[in-house]
From TrEMBL, chain A:
It is a single-pass membrane protein. Belongs to the class-II pyridoxal-phosphate-dependent aminotransferase family. InterPro entries: Aminotrans_II_pyridoxalP_BS, Aminotransferase_I/II_large, AON_synthase_class-II. Pathway: Sphingolipid metabolism; Lipid metabolism; sphingolipid metabolism. Residues 1-31 are annotated as: Disordered. It is an enzyme of class 2 (transferase). It comes from the Eukaryota. The chain crosses the membrane at residues 65-84. Its main location: endoplasmic reticulum. It comes from Cyprinus carpio. The lineage of its organism: Eukaryota, Metazoa, Chordata, Craniata, Vertebrata. This is serine C-palmitoyltransferase. GO terms for biological process: ceramide biosynthetic process; sphingosine biosynthetic process. The keyword ATP-binding does not apply.
TrEMBL record, chain B:
This is Serine palmitoyltransferase small subunit A-like. Belongs to the SPTSS family. SPTSSA subfamily. The lineage of its organism: Eukaryota, Metazoa, Chordata, Craniata, Vertebrata. Pathway: Sphingolipid metabolism; Lipid metabolism; sphingolipid metabolism. GO terms for biological process: ceramide biosynthetic process. Signal peptide: none annotated. It comes from Cyprinus carpio (Common carp).
Length: 559, 68
């Protein structure tokens, strides 16, 4: 399979990605690597049986060695000073601002000695002003920020009383721009509040099942192309409370390495055996599936009751898109079930905004459980699960969230209904369609410009989540502060949400951003990038693992 | 003017040094400690070089038989 694809390396200059090329195979790589140095790897799926109808361009550039060494050095210096400060706090030379055990508990097992607490005390607190910033307006394309200052190095904050106005918002998950306080959605939600009030005061199973909820579920089912759907009040709770209802003891859960905390929590709560496969790596998944079916359960070797594969549509920390055609092919071959979490991809991918299934041109009926959230593209809150009617009927009676959690508040339901109708075009306008197109254009433009400037950007070319690598700990705080000084609000992420040296700034593109806003943001990012020396890219793209998963895969990285 | 430019350039270099070594995140007294330690170690290295360089150069020249 790989040899045949590797022999056709000669005439494959896919300059703009339209004509698909071949990925560099191990045997011929050293002859042709100079051709690939300046171009993205385009993975035409001839070696995957023609599963992909469009080029799948994803890149995760390797960390430059010097940057990695300097990052470790920076963390080392911070750790040494952290130990010094802990020593001073212990010996009462310095006042301790953070929680500690009481005198009587000193002989018990210590609560705050692990690395996470050390990191929080000594590293996170120093740059804490980049997070939890209070916003005092609707988080649309721009927002207003309440200014704060700190006199004791971020242990406490005071409000200066000023408000920073019109900060460009590159951090909100506002992909289609529905987080707004004017327009059809807001008016409809206002009318419903006046008519029905805000609280529902009951769970779905008792007195909290209103006709609006039924309308929402029918609409969501028709939006997704499935038989039936169910809506829940909280997106995190949708995952963590429903996976235990779907899998239990004796079942196997195969979960991606970089799955969200809600999926991990749901998998752990279910009591099933969990096995983790490498991120977006189909060879790893196939190996796990084959091992599971061949060997069965750990000691008894009985067959697994069911095998559930947990994946996400777009991974928000990497900006990568799941290889859905391959996952579905594997699922069908090995008779497993697929749980797809489309939190970030629903509304944001696909020509009609129907998510990652439509993006790849697949059939929604192939995905057994389609989960998503209304938080990101619909400007509301909550989650849904869609699938076959018997599955959803089972969940209505057996899900913890349906039995114990309060049902969704009605203004939120109305916001979702109105925005979903707008995206589908059912409200008679083309607003939804134009927003989806604008999001796609903004995404491609922003990613291309950032790549050209020389930053290291992770992820797929079509994903509206754009992680830009920062690496060094001081640059995390510096980037957040410098961008705010120039009136742009960004989200910076470090450990523990990312691996310790791979800290990043994560931009979320929105359909509400105009081209002028994006241009201004890009100019500022370039200026700050020059000031902080963030343009690390050397155009060496780490080849995505699209070949058999064995030792020879790693030889190629020696360039 | 040249002095102003040189000062700007130097302060940009200092800013980069402070960012890369993560001193940016530390309080001023911690920066003082670290900078003092670094300057002390560097000064010791320069002093050792100054004291022992003539001996080392004579030994090298002797080895290559340039001087008896």
């Amino acid at each position: 399979m790989t040899e045949s694809a590797g022999n056709k390396n000669e005439d494959c200059h896919a300059a703009n990605g339209v004509k698909p090329g071949r990925n560099g195979m191990v045997k011929n790589h050293h002859h042709h690597h100079h051709q690939y140095q300046k171009q993205d790897k385009v993975y035409h799926a001839a070696c995957n049986g023609e599963l992909y109808s469009r080029p799948f361009i994803e890149s995760f550039e390797e960390t430059p060695m010097l940057v990695a060494v300097l990052t470790y050095m920076g963390y080392g210096i911070l750790t040494i000073f952290g130990y010094l400060r802990d020593f001073m706090r212990e010996w009462k030379i310095e006042k301790c601002h953070i929680a500690r055990e009481r005198e009587e508990q000193k002989d018990f097992v210590s609560l705050y000695q692990d690395f996470e607490n050390f990191y929080t005390r000594n590293l996170y607190m120093r740059i804490r002003d980049s997070w939890n910033r209070p916003i005092c307006s609707v988080p649309g394309a721009t927002f207003d920020l309440v200014e704060r200052s700190s006199n004791d190095y971020n242990w406490t904050f005071e409000y200066t009383g000023r408000v920073v106005k019109d900060v460009i918002n590159l951090g909100s998950y506002n992909y289609l721009g529905f987080a707004e306080n004017t327009g059809a959605c807001a008016t409809a939600a206002g009318e419903v509040t006046v008519k029905f009030g805000v609280g529902v005061a009951s769970t779905r199973q008792e007195m909290g099942n209103l006709d609006k909820h039924e309308e929402l579920e029918k609409l969501a089912a028709s939006f997704l192309g499935v038989e039936s759907a169910m809506a829940f009040g909280m997106g995190f709770a949708t995952n963590s409370m429903n996976i235990p209802a779907l899998a239990g003891k004796g079942c196997l859960i195969l979960s991606d390495e970089l799955n969200h905390a809600s999926l991990v929590l749901g998998a752990r709560l279910s009591g099933s055996t969990i096995r983790v496969f490498k991120h977006n790596n189909m060879q790893s998944l196939e190996k796990l599936l084959r091992d599971a079916i061949a060997h069965g359960q750990p000691r008894t070797h009985r067959p697994w009751k069911k095998i559930l594969i947990l994946v996400e549509g777009i991974y928000s920390m990497e900006g990568s898109i799941i290889r859905l055609p391959e996952v579905i092919a594997l699922k069908k071959k090995y008779k497993a079930y697929l749980y797809l979490d489309e939190a970030h991809s629903i509304g944001a991918l696909g020509p009609n905004g129907r998510g990652v299934v439509e993006y790849f041109g697949l059939d929604p009926k192939d995905v057994d459980v389609m989960m998503g959230t209304f938080t990101k593209s619909f400007g509301a809150a909550g989650g849904y699960i869609g699938g076959r009617k018997d599955l959803i009927d089972y969940l209505r009676t057996h899900s913890h969230s349906a039995i114990y959690a309060t049902s969704m508040s009605l203004p939120v339901v109305e916001q979702i209904i109105t925005s979903m109708k707008c995206i589908m075009g059912k409200d008679g306008t083309t607003i939804g369609r134009s927003r989806i197109q604008r999001l796609a254009e903004n995404t491609v433009y922003f990613r291309r410009r950032l790549r050209e400037m020389g930053f290291i950007i992770y992820g797929n070319n079509d994903s509206p989540v754009v992680p830009m690598m920062l690496y060094m700990p001081a640059k995390i705080g510096a980037f957040g502060r410098e961008m705010l000084k120039r009136n742009i609000g960004v989200v910076v992420v470090g450990f523990p949400a990312t691996p310790i040296i791979e800290s990043r700034a994560r931009f979320c593109i929105s359909a509400a951003h105009t081209k002028e806003m994006l241009d201004r943001a890009l100019d500022v990012i370039s200026e700050v990038g020059d000031l902080l020396q963030l343009k690390y890219s050397r155009h060496k793209v780490l080849p995505s693992l699209d070949r058999p998963f064995d030792e020879t895969t790693y030889e190629e990285n020696e360039e | 003017m040249a002095l102003g430019d040189a000062w700007k350039q130097l302060s940009w270099f200092y800013y980069q040094y402070v960012l890369v070594t993560a001193l940016y995140m530390l309080e001023p007294w911690e920066r003082t400690i670290f900078n003092s330690l670094l300057i002390t170690v560097a000064a010791m290295a320069v002093y050792t070089g100054y004291v022992f360089m003539p001996q080392h150069i004579m030994a090298i020249l002797h080895y290559f038989e340039v001087v008896q």
